[in-house]
Amino acid sequence: MRGSRRFKVAAAAGTVALLLAACSSSSTGTSTGGGSSTSGGSSNFGGATINVWSSMDQPIIDGLSAKLDPEAKALGINVKWTKVDNINQIIATKVQANAAPDIAMVPQPGVIQQLKAHVTPLDNVLDVAALKQSYIPGVLDTSTFDGKLYGILVSANLKGLIFYPKKIWDAKGYTVPTTIDELNTLTDKIKSDGITPWCAGIESGTGTGWPATDWLENLVMRYGGIQTYNDWISHKVKFDSPIVTQAGNEMAKLLFTSGNVPGGRTAIASTSFQTAGTPMFQPKPGCLLYQQGSFITAFFPKDIQADLPSNVGVFGMPPATAGGDNPVEGGGDTAAIFKDSPAARAVMKLLAATDLGSIAAGNGSSFLSPHKDFPLTDYKSVLTQQYAKVAYAATAFGFDASDAMPGTVGSGSFWKQMTTWVSGSEDLSSALKAIDGSWPSG
Predict the structure, then answer these.
(1) Domains 5-22+36-157+331-401 and 161-328+405-438 are alike in CATH topology
(2) Which of the four pLDDT bands, split at 50, 70 and 90, describes residue 442?
(3) CA 324 to each of CA 122, 192, 223, 400: distance values in angstroms, whole numbers, following the listed order
(4) What is residue 386's predicted lDDT score, i.e. its pLDDT?
(5) pTM (two decimals)
(6) Is 90 exceeded by the pLDDT of residue 28?
(7) What is the 3-state secondary structure (H, E, C) of the chain?
(8) In this model, does residue 30 exceed pLDDT 50?
(9) I need a surface site. Which of 103, 126, 296, 408 has the fewest CB within 10 A?
């Protein structure tokens, strides 16, 4: 799944702002149609062509187009799909040149927020109330700004998943923890059985540090809840706050305790996130638990990938308390209208349909629907079904915090300071204060 930040290019807030200064406003008129999340109707749009840009993996695009295009054709609309790399940056340039596509699917909702003067609000285009019932709770909030909905999540990915080698897990009789305390107990049990509990690596070239931000984000979400998490993203809650410090201390307990990771704490910063999980699958496992995103199986050994259901188990990071809030962190591709027209609005309704991914989910792609009422049986992959169970049982969906923060922080000081802290060159308090100090003013 395209979810690793080695594939993400953070949009520079200053660059986008400069581009917007030269832009003229786009039309944002309201729709006279109903707000259905499915197509319906018999309107004919006379062969209008709607351009849809996306940076999603090609198999996902192919699956979505196979479902949507015939429905659009029946309405008299031709849909042209284009795969565009670095779309977060390119879309702002195209807006400036008045050459934006009709619809773009953007991985970072913060880009849509910065461009919202040129994006069509969807409140009178879609049945928002119905979508709230269909989506994982909180999904619509990730693209709602100043009380208006500007985009809809089309394909999701998850963070905070904990992978393990299924055969030894089953042989040892380990059980999935239901709280963070139970996760600590499991960690201690694995270590007492003579196995290093956690796989860990945050090296990612110029993106080194992002896996550590995912760790912290997931724990902040669990200790603070989704509202505190979102307030942290907007810096209403500071990094140097009790909740973030609590999350950091728990992360340190799990990963920095002697004997908890291969090579100890100092090895984490120099171990690639791509290969950090490989020791799980050795005849004598070098570690047993690996917290990562749903895309990570693409980096597992080829023989493991050949039969993932037999070799790999997965569960979501548990909540702080039994039966308490159980949010999930994720990302994905958010569709927004950049060139308004009745035909573009009709296509947006098709993109909002629950069954949009019915073909993509079964064609071997990494598609994960954000609709909690999407049938699990539509997923070809057993592992993807497990991801979906984690997502659809969540009490809230929070967008990856570092992707939603200003670029100078999210993919700048946050990555850097987490690396410095993890490597042992700086204490947690100093790292968190340094990130607060880097937050852009105004």
Answers:
(1) yes
(2) low
(3) 33, 29, 10, 21
(4) 96
(5) 0.88
(6) no
(7) CCCCHHHCCCCCHHHHHHHHHCCCCCCCCCCCCCCCCCCCCCCCCCCEEEEEEECCCHHHHHHHHHHHHHHHHHCCEEEEEEECCCHHHHHHHHHHCCCCCCEEEECCHHHHHHCHHHCCCCCCCCCHHHHHHHECCCCHHHHEECCEECCEEEEEEECCEEEEEHHHHHHHCCCCCCCHHHHHHHHHHHHHCCCCCECCCCECHHHCCHHHHHHHHHHHHHHHHHHHHHHHHCCCCCCCCHHHHHHHHHHHHHHHCCCCCCCCHHHHCCCECCCCCHHHHCCCCCCCEEEECCCHHHHCCHHHHCCHHHHEEEEECCCCCCCCCCCEEEEEEEEEECCCCHHHHHHHHHHCCHHHHCCHHHCCCCCCCCECCCCHHHCCCHHHHHHHHHHHCCCCEEECHHHHCCHHHHHHHHHHHHHHHHCCCCCHHHHHHHHHHHCCCC
(8) no
(9) 408
Residue 215, token pair as written in the block? 């760790």
- Alpha-carbon distance 166 to 173, whole Å? 10
Tokens 């700086």 correspond to what residue?
Answer: 426
Q: Which long-range contacts link 275-284 to residues 24+ away (Cβ below 8 Å)?
A: 275/201, 275/299, 276/199, 276/200, 276/201, 277/163, 277/199, 279/196, 279/199, 280/163, 280/164, 280/165, 280/199, 281/165, 281/311
The torsion defined by the Cα of 123, 108, 84 and 119, in degrees rounded to 10, comes to: 30
Q: What architecture does CATH give domain 5-22+36-157+331-401?
A: 3-Layer(aba) Sandwich (3.40)
